[in-house]
Structure formats: structure tokens, C-alpha cells
Amino acid sequence: MATKHEQILAFIEALEVGDKISVRQIAKELGVSEGTAYRAIKDAENQGFVSTIERVGTIRIKKKQKENIEKLTFAEVVNIVDGQVLGGRAGLHKTLNKFVIGAMRLEAMMRYVEPGSLLIVGNRDQVHKIALEAGAAVLITGGFDANDEVKQLADERELPVISTSYDSFTTGTMINRAIYDQLIKKEIVQVSDILTPLEKTQFLYSGDTVERWHEHHDESTHSRYPVVDTNMKVVGIVTSKDVINAGDEILIEKIMTKNPLTVNERTSVATAAHMMIWEGIEMVPVVNQSQKLVGIISRQDVLKAMQTMQQQPQIGETFADLIANQIVEKEENGVESFTCEVTPQMTNHLGTLAYGVMTTLVTEVGSRVLKKYKKGDPVVENLTIFFIKPIQIESTIDIRPRILEVSRKYGRLDVEIFHEGTIVGKALMVAQLIDRH
């Protein structure tokens, strides 16, 4: 039987896109406490089919697919620009295809405005009306209001008209940054992208016997299975080691490993990989917010996904990418080293190389060296850095890594950082080496 939390989530998901939701309404309609209703609404927001907007409330939105994650909803725009919704609230769940800054003559502006776009413009009532008639939402900058005719038209067309106190340039920059951040998120491969779904997953119930394990094994040749209770909640893992010397009539719950490690669909593949390698696990159950089984991932699935990720171009550059792009490799007298210029973006408020950037530089250089020495993917396990002298802005530093030890699973390096021939930092890095095969 579904829990109250699950019943509320199902109720919310069944609502029409654009419907307003409140804690009091949910509590009254489903006969639950307001605390239970509040927790379920927050869970729905985390899962992406509810959005809370200041001064508007909580509304049911269309859950964005992975391929459309870079598109913002108008509800998200309201939160980004600290906006106020003047009209067209029923359209807040819609996504914008692009935004146009209206700092031009009307004729030129309308060449760029199209259905599904967002026009960012100041106090120009006629422009607001024409944009809505063309199927675009409107974001009014400078804190200005819209006239009643525009608000009425926005409600009729279900196209939001939003007001913000920011100027057009700042507003455009904020929205552009949000889209850019979404692009980076799109490139992060999650467990949901690689899992074997429930309908293709073999699992056992805690009340099954060892005989059932043997039936699964004969059919699939797999040796590990998640164990669930009657509500499909994961309660254990059973492997070939557990069933050795166990009679066919023994219950699975008597021999299984209880409280197994699990991941959810939104866990990144990199996090799952580190956990599986560190714990020496071959298979991990994937669960939802209610800890119910939704599928599994195997070590092989994870490693294959990580290899694919490394071969794909990154659409949105992260800070780590920008720092890595500054590193230049060189070799003198058979000794490999790396140089890097300290750009303004890499410094702290004192104008010296930031600690976090130093960590990224050492990690990147160390990983490059280990990849050359041994075919595998390094995952940093321990990093100790000694800052000997501050490194000034626009300095060029030499980074000289030296391999101390490499085994089948681990690599240890000593890294020295020089500026103008003087040592300014040292680091000791230990990394796990994940076999690509």
C-alpha cells in the first residue's frame, strides 16, 4: 500500500500543468497533516514537476526532459531576476526558446521576436502589446508596470508579463548565465541515463527461498540480485557467496546483506563510479525518493559511461575546464613539466593564485601524467598541498610532477611548483586507477 507521501506525490503529478498548489489545499483534500503535505511538495519540487515562485505561489509545471534541460521555464526566469508577475500566470510553466533585448527600433526588434521567445524591454506599452500578439512573453526592466490592456492580453494568451527592478543588460546577463549553467548540467551524465530499468531487472523478494536465486542464476548467469520487501523497497543484496552451502529452502532474508548501498536516479555517474570502486561493488540498486527499486547499475555500465563522457566535447565550460586550458605541456632533456600563466580569474582578492585553483592545477597535471604512465582513469583519493610562497597575478609557473609509485590500482605522485626557478609550492597526490576494461 502506498504511503501518504507517495499518495500526495501521485496527486500532484496528476494535476494539470499550470495548476496552483498549496500546503493547506493538499492537507485538506487528502486528509494529511500540513507538515506531511509540505514535505511532499518540496519533494515534488526536487523532482522537477513543481516550481515555487515568490509572490505567486507553487504551481505544477511540466517536468523537463534531459535533452531540454538547457531551456528555462518562465517560472524559473521570475526567480532568476527577482521578478513580479503582472499577468499571464497560467503560462509560467512554458519554456522560452530564446530571449531578445529590445534596445532597438520597433521594426528591427520584431524581426527577432517569435512565439516562445522572451522580449526584455523597458517602459514601452505599445511594444509590450505587439510582442504578446506575436506569441512572446515580456520582461519589463527598471521596475516599471504594464498597463491594464497588456495585462488582460497576457492573461488571454497565457503569456507571462514579468517586471524586474534590474536594467536590461543585467537581466540579459543573469538569464544567459542561467542557460549556460543548465548546459553544463546537461552534460553531467546521471545514473538515470545508464540504469537497467525495473522491467528488465531481476530481483528477489525477502520471502523468496535460495531455490529462487538458483532459478534466476540459471536464466541470466548473474550472481547478484537486489532484494525487496512486499512494497518494493530495497532491503538487501544477495550474491553467490551468500548462497554457498545454503539449502534451497532457506529464506533469502536470512542470508542476504542488509542495508546495502544504493543510489538514486539523479546521482552523477562519477559519484557512483567512485563509490563502487572504493567499496569494491559490482552492482548497485537504484531507488527513488521512497527507497523503492527502479533499476540497477553495474560496474561495467558505469565505466563504459565514463569512457564515453571523456570522448564527448563539453558544451559548457566549467571553471576546471578554463583552468585546464591554461596548462601547456613541455619537455626538456627528457624531463616532462607543465607551465601555466596565472590569469586574473585564477586569483583571490589579494591578487595571488587562489588555493582552489592550485588544487585544480595539481590534480589536472597529476592525472595527465598517470594516464600516460598507465592506461586507466585516475580518481584522486588524497591530496596534500603545501603553499610555500604566494604566486602573483600574471606570473608564469612551472609544475613538475614526479611519479613515486604506481601499482595496479593506485598511483602516488610528488608535484613541485616553481616560479622563476624558486619553489613556491609542493603537493603529494594519491589516486585510484580505474581500469578501462
Automatic annotation (TrEMBL):
Residue span(s) of domain CBS: 195-254, 256-314
Keywords: CBS domain
PROSITE patterns: CBS
InterPro entries listed in its UniProt record: CBS_dom (IPR000644), CBS_dom_sf (IPR046342), Diverse_CBS-Domain (IPR051257), DRTGG (IPR010766), HotDog_dom_sf (IPR029069), Ser_kin/Pase_Hpr-like_N_sf (IPR028979), Thioestr_dom (IPR006683), WH-like_DNA-bd_sf (IPR036388)
Membrane in keyword set: no
PANTHER family membership: CBS DOMAIN-CONTAINING PROTEIN, CBS DOMAIN-CONTAINING PROTEIN CBSX3, MITOCHONDRIAL
Protein name: CBS domain-containing protein
Species whose genome carries this gene: Pueribacillus theae
